[in-house]
Design goal:
Arc Repressor Mutant, subunit A, mainly alpha, DNA-binding, two-stranded antiparallel ribbon, 16 helices, 3 domains
DNA sequence: AAGCGTCCCAACCGCAGGTTG
DNA sequence: GCAACCTGCGGTTGGGACGCT
């Protein structure tokens, strides 16, 4: 695994380390300690550059490294810290003893980032992706439920998709454009955009941002309601210690709107009546978990940031703890 | 069993910032 | 002040492992 041995430059070996090289490096550092990486290879009898030695030691040979899978606690810690720090892997690694920045970076890119995207979150901002939401709603509309919902032919459905895309690309504010008013658009046959749509169909992804149920009702994830409620509040908020969360993804996906409604989703019986609130933020607000006013929680101790619902950083910025993320990450459909 | 595509992660690369002479 | 050197960081690469057809 890893890099293949590439042609040595200046006689310096590259690529995977073998056991003998590891032993030489470990023995030398055990005697002299880490540091002075430029001169270390020569002194340790290694045909490697200092940079390579340092990397091998820090990421693999250090005795205090914790091997094995990340625990749920570590995952949550990474998520919260990333929300605050961004791609500052070394800073994040400092809060996770035994883990390296490289390891965390890899885990983020291969697991956590993908999960956030699947759930409809922007992996950089950790906020719901309104632009993607709009796009995926189109994809959701391409499911069988759309014809029931709009009572239209498949050809007209394509017209809806195309016009919706046009709105997205033309608008600087991609958030929640009006679906209902756009269904009269002409169909441009052979459009590359239109042709690409079937490849993008993904019920799981569509669900995460607003999908149709089997009976053709549009659903909207709870996290938009939470975000809206938080954004509207002038005070810092804290989660109720025992909020109500969706009990099951499958129930919302496959068991119709009743379960969905009880879990924080809502439905349109007639989409045409909801133009003023096309995404149902207002009607869904009653499903938002209760919040209480929070006394300020300064991140004076960075180690404890995972216990805060809102983190205040030294530069005046702050990050918000999203209950949606934590609850849903444990669910099989997100895994 | 073979072929193919995707995932995972160790290791590399380039760059920025700090240190030294 | 400047150049050279050193260290550390974040992004990227690419081959083995794995799963699917």
């Amino acid at each position: 695994m890893g890099r293949p041995p590439s042609p040595a430059k200046d006689g310096v070996k590259k690529g995977p380390w073998d056991a003998e090289e590891d032993k030489k490096l470990v023995d030398f550092i055990a005697k002299h300690g880490p540091g002075c990486w430029i001169s270390l290879p020569k002194l340790a009898g290694l045909n490697r550059c200092g940079k390579s030695c340092r990397l091998r030691w820090i990421n693999y040979l250090r005795p205090d490294l914790k091997r094995g899978n990340f625990t749920a606690e570590e995952e949550q810690k990474i998520l919260r810290l990333h929300e605050i720090l961004g791609n500052k892997w070394s800073a994040i690694a400092m809060q996770l003893p035994g883990r390296t920045d490289n390891e965390i970076k890899n885990y983020w890119n291969t697991h956590l980032k993908k999960r956030l995207i699947r759930m409809g979150y922007d992996p950089m901002t950790h906020e719901p992706r309104t632009d993607l939401m709009a796009c995926l709603t189109i994809l959701a509309m391409s499911t069988n439920g759309l014809n029931d919902l709009l009572n239209r032919t498949p050809l007209d459905v394509n017209a809806v998709k195309l016009d919706y895309l046009k709105q997205m690309f033309q608008s600087t504010d991609a958030a929640a454009p009006n679906l209902v008013s756009s269904i009269s658009a002409p169909l441009l046959e052979g459009s590359p955009i239109l042709n690409s749509l079937p490849q993008l169909e993904n019920q799981e992804a569509a669900f995460s941002l607003g999908a149709t149920t089997t009976s053709g009702h549009l659903l909207q994830p709870l996290h938009h309601s939470i975000t809206t409620a938080l954004s509207a509040s002038p005070t810092d908020l804290q989660l109720d210690p025992q909020p109500t969360f969706p009990p099951s993804f499958e129930s919302m996906l496959f068991e119709g709107t009743e379960a969905a409604q009880s879990c924080g989703f809502f439905q349109w019986d007639d989409p045409a009546e909801n133009i003023s609130d096309p995404w149902g933020f207002e009607s869904a607000s009653e499903f938002v978990p209760s919040f209480t006013t929070q006394t300020d929680t300064p991140a004076s101790n960075p180690v404890d940031v995972t216990s805060c619902s809102r983190i205040h950083c030294g530069d005046g910025t702050s990050g918000r703890y999203s209950p949606w993320t934590e609850i849903l990450f444990d669910h099989p459909i997100i895994q």
